[in-house]
């Protein structure tokens, strides 16, 4: 005990009790509850006063006389308070005072930030005075309405500015209140009325009217609606409001006190609570209008129904032909036995087109020995397309893929309807088909980020491209994705013309959205490079790292459209017959494609390039390096297989949609989902018959190469932006093409050309490697002199 006492003493000398105006937590609770109850007492007194004031008149002067009773619910206190605040004071408006006191108590009790309390009091008193003066007009009919204060103030105002003047003053104060306190503007009221009107009209716009709109598409009545992500989002997405956010509470601080120190008050330094910026424009906009919805312009857009796709496997379940399995197994075992390889265990997985036999060899058998027997096993099974995977990655087994006698078609319908695809939370989900274990294979194009497809003619490339495009049509709203289609064969992608105004993007001056002419491809690719540069600028200004972040910010209304910001749809560039293009246009297409492939992933431009001839002069090193995701249908030689996959295997496929997919690591064998031309036609017809945007999505304009690139450039051949560019360079005193790209929103090629022209004109010095060129003109005067003297 004695020891304890000395401990207390030493502590007491060390920590002198500081005097502070700040209330401790306990004091706040006491003060808060007092004010809260006082407010309630005022409220009850006021209510009761209205019924008892006449009877209680006589008791007012005899407060100390205990024999006198008052009728008020709070007896003489209530009668006195009521008389003071209502009759002598503010009349009916005195209730505001009771509310303010209660609220103050509440704020102290729960230790809420006091800043909003000040504004409550300020505006509360104004409201109280306003009503008091307003009811002052009726003082002769009922003096209680406005109270003495109301009557006197009203009278005072009328003496100077008359009744009309007083009314005008009251109207003005009311406007100030609505504008400053409630932040109401005529636009907001207009918007509110408009949204109400829309809500009512959309309620009337029932399914009937939708059916009427597309009645001639003939697919409506009995189609099964797929659960569409966007629709769900509409319903579920809560609108974020600052008011609904819980206010930050100071973390409770637990202080362990020894018992005998009970008298000691620990001074807890209150942390300054950060006020939320109510004026934050984006929060306010979201509060008022909700998040930006890119699909609003085509809000009635209906996704194609699954019924438009054909079910090729109707009635056919996965039939396992026991006889075939047994036969194949015996042959594999026998062949291996002939080479003195014993098997410990064998297991079969029956896929849509091939069956995988997994073998566990006896201990001590070399894997390479089995791998070398590929041809012998194929011979003994008398089957094409045998692929040996030794060992299967992730498993301690050796796989032998043997084609089934009766291959099954994988319908696009089953792939689209699979939960894996339907529930895919991806930016650009693609379903390619089914794996050997009959699982639907779904990948995100946005993550690939570009796809290279190769396969000999007739092996399923076009069907594969259609499957990819169909996947996107079933999952993405027209506002979210745009296609740029290049089809030199002129027949494969023509069906997509029907959805030009929904899903396609094109150059401003071109008539056809689907590009079939190789010369136009060059312009389109360069235009996409400009689009890429512009998007990078937007991202930089928005301080977003990629398109997903940028669009999220835009939806939250954090980016101002007046600064050029807009919702950015993904752009998918599909090039069929790439070999043909490279052969005719060479470097001119290779350079922009390589540039796009290197840089475009972050800004949402993704490339899908298909080719028949996967030779090295078509798929060059630079292109290969930037296309980590590859699909190989059957190719004719091992060399081709190596070019596309960096390993053999594609030459052993069996065709008709049998494919290998890699994303840089292991190969996955997939049976591509089959979607036939009539099905694609039905889908595009269905989409095409709906309300569309006025035009296809516009790509930036690209001025072609006509100007020439030599340094002996004629002054008349200069780019139209030559003068602007010269001014930018001279002002910034920095001779770089990327500066021009940014400032004038140009593509790389055009900016480079202008720099050449500036060099020829003597504005900038020659190319100096990684350094920016020297600017040879010091100021604007010098520039004008130089150009005038030419
Ligand atoms: N996934 C698949 N399932 C079943 N059959 C398929 C599949 N893919 C393609 N086929 C069959 O192969 C035929 C040729 O396919 P496709 O037209 O896609 O070949 P391609 O590689 O585009 O040929 P080309 O390069 O000559 O245009 C189709 O008509 C179809 O009968």
From TrEMBL:
SMART domains: Ftsk_gamma (SM00843). Signal peptide: none annotated. Residues 438-642 form the FtsK domain. ATP binds at residues 455-462. Pfam families: FtsK_4TM, FtsK_alpha, FtsK_gamma, FtsK_SpoIIIE. The chain crosses the membrane at residues 29-51, 84-108, 120-140, 160-180. The keyword Transcription regulation does not apply. GO terms for molecular function: ATP binding; DNA binding. It comes from the Bacteria. InterPro entries: FtsK/SpoIIIE/SftA (IPR050206), FtsK_4TM (IPR025199), FtsK_alpha (IPR041027), FtsK_dom (IPR002543), Ftsk_gamma (IPR018541), P-loop_NTPase (IPR027417), WH-like_DNA-bd_sf (IPR036388), WH_DNA-bd_sf (IPR036390). The keyword S-adenosyl-L-methionine does not apply. PROSITE patterns: FTSK. Keywords: ATP-binding, Cell cycle, Cell division, Cell membrane, Chromosome partition, DNA-binding, Membrane, Nucleotide-binding, Transmembrane, Transmembrane helix. Gene3D superfamilies: 3.30.980.40, P-loop containing nucleotide triphosphate hydrolases, Winged helix-like DNA-binding domain superfamily/Winged helix DNA-binding domain. It is found in: Cell membrane. It is a multi-pass membrane protein. GO terms for cellular component: plasma membrane. One of its GO terms (biological process) is cell division. Belongs to the FtsK/SpoIIIE/SftA family. This is S-DNA-T family DNA segregation ATPase FtsK/SpoIIIE.
């Amino acid at each position: 005990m004695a020891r304890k006492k000395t401990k207390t003493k030493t502590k007491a000398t060390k920590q002198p009790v500081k005097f502070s105006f700040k209330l401790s937590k306990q004091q706040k609770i006491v003060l808060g509850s007092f004010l809260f109850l006082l407010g309630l007492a005022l409220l009850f007194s006021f209510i009761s006063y209205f019924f008892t004031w006449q009877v209680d008149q006589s008791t007012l002067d005899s407060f100390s006389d205990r024999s006198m009773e008052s009728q008020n619910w709070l007896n003489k206190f209530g009668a006195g308070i009521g008389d003071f605040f209502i009759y002598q004071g503010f009349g009916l408006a005195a209730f505001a005072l009771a509310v303010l006191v209660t609220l103050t108590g509440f704020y102290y009790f729960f230790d809420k930030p006091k800043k909003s309390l000040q504004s409550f009091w300020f505006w509360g008193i104004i409201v109280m005075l306003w009503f008091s003066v307003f009811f002052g007009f009726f003082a002769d009919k009922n003096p209680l309405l406005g109270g003495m204060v109301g009557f006197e103030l009203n009278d005072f105002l009328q003496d100077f500015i008359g009744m009309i003047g007083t009314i005008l003053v009251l109207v003005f104060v009311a406007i100030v209140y609505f504008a400053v306190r409630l932040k109401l503007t005529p636009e907001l009221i207009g918007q509110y009325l408009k949204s109400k009107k829309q809500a009512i009209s959309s309620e009337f716009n029932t399914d009937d009217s939708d059916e009427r709109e597309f009645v001639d598409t003939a697919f409506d009545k009995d189609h099964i609606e797929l659960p569409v992500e966007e629709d769900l989002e509409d319903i579920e997405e809560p609108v974020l409001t600052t008011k609904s956010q819980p206010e930050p509470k100071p973390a409770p601080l637990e202080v362990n006190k020894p018992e005998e120190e009970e008298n000691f008050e620990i001074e807890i330094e209150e942390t300054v609570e950060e006020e939320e910026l109510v004026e934050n424009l984006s929060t306010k906009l979201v509060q008022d209008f909700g998040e930006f919805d890119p699909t609003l312009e085509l809000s009635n857009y209906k996704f194609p129904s699954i019924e438009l796709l054909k079910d090729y496997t109707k009635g056919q379940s996965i039939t396992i032909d026991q006889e075939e399995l047994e036969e194949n197994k015996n042959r594999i075992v026998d062949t291996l036995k002939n080479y003195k390889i014993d098997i410990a265990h064998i297991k079969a997985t029956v896929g849509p087109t091939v069956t995988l036999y997994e073998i566990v060899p006896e201990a001590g058998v070399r894997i390479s020995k089995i791998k070398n027997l590929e041809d012998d096993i194929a011979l003994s099974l008398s089957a094409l397309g045998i692929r040996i995977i030794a060992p299967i990655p992730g498993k301690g087994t050796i796989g032998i893929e043997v084609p089934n006698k009766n291959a099954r078609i994988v319908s696009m319908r089953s792939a689209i309807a699979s939960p894996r695809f339907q529930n895919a939370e991806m930016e650009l989900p693609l379903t390619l088909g089914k794996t050997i274990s009959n699982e639907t294979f779904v990948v995100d194009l946005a993550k690939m980020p570009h796809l290279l497809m190769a396969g000999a003619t007739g092996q399923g490339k076009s069907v594969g491209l259609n499957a990819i495009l169909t996947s996107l049509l079933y999952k993405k709203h027209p506002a979210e994705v745009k296609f740029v289609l290049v089809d030199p064969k002129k027949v494969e992608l023509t069906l997509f013309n029907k959805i030009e105004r929904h899903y396609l993007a094109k150059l401003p001056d071109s008539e056809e959205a689907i590009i079939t002419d190789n010369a136009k491809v060059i312009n389109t690719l360069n235009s996409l490079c400009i689009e890429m540069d512009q998007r990078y600028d937007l991202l930089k200004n928005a301080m977003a790292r990629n398109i997903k972040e940028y669009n999220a910010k835009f939806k939250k209304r954090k980016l101002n459209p007046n600064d050029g910001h807009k919702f950015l749809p993904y752009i998918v560039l599909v090039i069929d017959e790439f070999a043909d293009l490279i052969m005719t246009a060479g470097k001119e297409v290779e350079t922009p494609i390589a540039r796009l492939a290197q840089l475009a992933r972050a800004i949402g431009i993704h490339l899908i390039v298909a080719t028949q001839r996967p030779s090295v002069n078509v798929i060059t090193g630079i292109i290969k390096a930037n296309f980590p995701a590859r699909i190989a249908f059957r190719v004719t030689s091992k060399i081709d297989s190596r070019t596309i996959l960096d390993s053999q295997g594609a030459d052993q496929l069996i065709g008709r949609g049998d494919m290998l997919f890699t994303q840089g690591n292991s190969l996955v064998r997939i049976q591509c989902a089959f979607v036939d031309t009539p099905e694609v036609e039905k889908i595009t017809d269905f989409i095409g018959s709906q309300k569309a945007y006025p035009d296809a999505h516009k790509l930036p304009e690209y001025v072609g190469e006509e100007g020439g690139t030599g340094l002996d450039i004629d002054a008349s051949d200069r780019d139209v932006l030559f003068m602007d560019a010269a001014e930018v360079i001279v002002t910034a005193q920095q001779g770089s093409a990327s500066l021009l790209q940014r400032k004038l929103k140009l593509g790389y090629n055009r900016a480079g050309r202008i720099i050449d022209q500036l060099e020829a004109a003597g504005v900038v010095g020659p190319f100096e490697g990684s350094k920016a060129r020297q600017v040879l003109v010091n100021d604007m005067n010098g520039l004008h002199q130089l150009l005038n003297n030419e």
